[in-house]
């Protein structure tokens, strides 16, 4: 098995060390259950030093950690009321090994989902793409289509917009780009999913979202925004779409996200991502 980070893959050697962090301030005005997905995914091969601190009105609490599929980590906390401050930082020395393709992936990631409603695109892709082309060619065409069709405009989309809304609007942010790419790929019978990441070099700096699709038995990263080099992305969570990967969620109660800040740096110069290479994420 080829291990990214020790053997050249997609033109890239092991990424240099990376430092990432996230700070969230959330005001809770009615009892709720908070869930955060901001920690680096826990996967084989990863060498990481990290810290997580959570306070409620200055009082330290330790949330429950739930490790899900593909190493996604949910930190869950029940709060009655008050100001919740979450601070997370991590130093990634070496990346995790690329996630292998499972037999179930060919079923789960072809299905329509909340924000990637691929069943609305079957007729569209038949008229837009040559469905007889190989997956490798189609994935490149989808990435080019999304990049050319959409304009990156913060605030242009609504949090409940799906891929069809994004196509009609012609604008959005990274999650909208990823949702449209995922929906189109699934409609072309190529399994695809969304990955939330830390992205060194991303401008504007924020939590970032990219698509992953299966090519020749491997999960390959696709980022039609071109905002950050894929070689240095750090996986946070993986799922069907943003419903599975949101950095903050709550059940019951009432909350307000007062403030958040994300940082992601690489030790040394950022690599150049031409978009033509097959890049696998750890």
Automatic annotation (TrEMBL):
Residues 166-226 form the Transglutaminase-like domain. SMART domains: TGc. Pfam families: Transglut_core. PANTHER family: BLL5557 PROTEIN, BLR5614 PROTEIN-RELATED. This is Transglutaminase-like domain-containing protein. The lineage of its organism: Bacteria, Bacillati, Actinomycetota, Actinomycetes, Mycobacteriales.
């Amino acid at each position: 098995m080829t291990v990214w980070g020790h053997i050249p893959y997609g033109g890239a050697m092991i990424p240099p060390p990376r430092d990432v962090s996230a700070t969230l301030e959330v005001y809770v005005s009615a009892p709720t259950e908070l869930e955060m997905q901001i920690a680096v995914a826990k996967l084989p091969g990863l060498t990481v030093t990290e810290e997580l601190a959570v306070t409620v009105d200055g009082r330290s609490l330790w949330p429950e950690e739930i490790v899900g599929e593909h190493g996604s980590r949910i930190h869950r906390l029940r709060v009655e009321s008050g100001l919740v401050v979450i601070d997370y930082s991590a130093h990634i020395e070496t990346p995790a090994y690329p996630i292998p393709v499972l037999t179930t992936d060919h079923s789960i990631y072809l299905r329509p989902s909340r924000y990637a409603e691929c069943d609305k695109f079957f007729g569209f892709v038949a008229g837009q793409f040559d469905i007889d082309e190989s997956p490798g060619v189609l994935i490149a065409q989808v990435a080019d289509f999304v990049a050319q069709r959409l304009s990156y405009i913060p605030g242009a989309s609504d949090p409940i917009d799906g891929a069809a809304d994004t196509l009609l609007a012609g604008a959005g942010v990274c999650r909208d780009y990823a949702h449209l790419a995922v929906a189109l790929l699934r409609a072309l019978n190529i399994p695809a999913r969304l990955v939330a990441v830390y992205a060194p070099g991303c401008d504007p700096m924020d939590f970032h979202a990219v698509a992953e699709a299966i090519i020749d038995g491997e999960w390959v990263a696709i980022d039609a925004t071109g905002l950050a080099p894929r070689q240095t992305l750090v996986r946070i969570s993986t799922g069907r779409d943003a419903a599975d990967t949101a950095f903050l969620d709550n059940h019951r109660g009432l909350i307000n996200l007062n403030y958040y800040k994300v940082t992601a740096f690489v030790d040394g110069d950022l690599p150049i991502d031409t978009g033509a290479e097959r890049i696998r994420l750890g």
